[in-house]
Amino acid sequence: MKIRKAVIPAAGLGTRVLPASKAIPKEMIPIVDCPAIQYIVEEAAKSDIKEILIITSRGKAAIEDHFDRSPELENVLLSKGREDICNQMLNISNFANISYIRQKEANGLGDAILCAKSFVGDEPFAVLYGDDVIRSKYPVCKQLCDAYEEFGLGVVGIKQVTKEAIQKYSSMKVDLIKDNLFKITDMIEKPKIDEIMSLYAILGRCVLPPEIFSILEKTELGAGGELQLTDAMKKLAQTEGIIGVDFIGKRYDMGNKLGIMKANIETALDHEEIGTDFRQYLKDISTKL
Prior knowledge:
single chain, two-stranded antiparallel ribbon
């Protein structure tokens, strides 16, 4: 079945990137000249997603404004002969049909996904975590959608991480199917050392069947006293199995300061407007390190 809808949870407070996130949503922190969430929405659009729901919270109206039209700005740009920039602004508002809903309390990722139940209906859907920007010529969301169409099972984007890092994420029980595809039959959120199943963790992307909602509604609160999406996916893995895609792409964790800096530097190096000058700048300052 073709994946037509995507959900982007973007309701978190961004405490790891304070004080920047005190005044602006962390999802609006720029990577060179585009806010992080624009990269995520573009990835969904390039994966043939037509309908996107962004889950926000109080104080995140800037996200809605960014993907809306701005006739005043467009008129100013046109009056100054900046049609190229004006067209870029128009394109932002035409990536997909974007809807918004608020998660009224921070009760975990599972609770955020439950907010999307009426939007999703009875069809499978993609989830793109609002903290994770992934650069890839083959959009990671599309990689997962292709796997769903092949196997008809829930799909998660996975990568191997260090033993220290796995305790902050989720650990998967995996069996290789072929190439970069795995069958996942169990998982655990934030495992202790003796609970680690493998060093594969879910990082930022998944495609889920609509059955996940009924599972979430019956799932007890987990790590941190919150409703964890991983706990619901664990039940799905144990009953039906889930496909893991060791995705092709470079992930940046926009929920921490080092991840933000890495994203900016590596994106700037490839930027068509400033890439050459920025590369020379790095060469110049590297002699002083």
